[in-house]
Specification:
The complex is a heterodimer of chains A (102) and B (177). With 102 residues, chain A is mostly helical. Chain A is built from three helices and no strands. The chains are: A mainly alpha (102), B mainly alpha (177).
Amino acid sequence: MMGPDVVWYLAVAAFLFCTGALGVLIRRSPLIVLLSLEIMLNGANLALITFARYYGRGDGQVFALAVMAIAASEVVVGLGLIVAMARRHLDLDVDELRTLRG
Amino acid sequence: MGNFLVWVVWVVAAFSCLGSGIAVVSFSNPFYSALSLIGNLASLAVLYLLLSAEFVAAAQVLVYAGAVMVMFLFVIAYLGGRADAPWAGGPNWLTLGAVAASAALFVEVIVVIGLKTSGRLAHEASIGSSFGSPAEVARLFLTDHLLAFEITSIVLLVAAVGGVILGSHARVGGTQQ
């Protein structure tokens, strides 16, 4: 393979995953938490596709496409929840939504 | 020469990917965060192309940058981009702890990759010209991974129904808005 080794792609994937995790931990707006979740999913996707290239088999790419479909459905439900929350005039702040915490 | 060009493309794509990822987390306006996520997805598609995953790269641009991000931008425009400054009021302990936790996670992953693979990942398998083509991906989807394909379709259907229910005006208690 021309260009960098598989390890470099894995490092980028790990950094993306950690950036997304940081966003999920520190942001309070549920919209940005969803965006950070997308970054985490994309980091995992990059690792899947890197290993698909490393082993020369297409199964990792198939899984990456399945993850993409799951991410799209997750965004539909998440955005639907956020819009429903905004319609009920709830504060869009994940620190305020603690009713389910018990 | 070709190798050098691939390195240049990789460095540009990887650093714009990392930079836009950090931008998504640190912009206070959700609108700018969503726009940087589009840049992140586009540079990831370039990385997928370098890994000879042509169909996944095209699907990434179509599904994510096309459909998902447009939906995000619509919702942000509908709700109004309320600022949520993550770094406001100086560093507090929760933010510092979260940064330390994700940095520790990153170091852990890098150390595991370095220790467990130590040079063994340098020789990847040789691939044919059909690797990553739509025909190859479709063959795998409809033969080896048929169950995953069908389950994905059910998940998409459930998500669509859930989106309709969450977005409808009728409440379960019978109150109309």
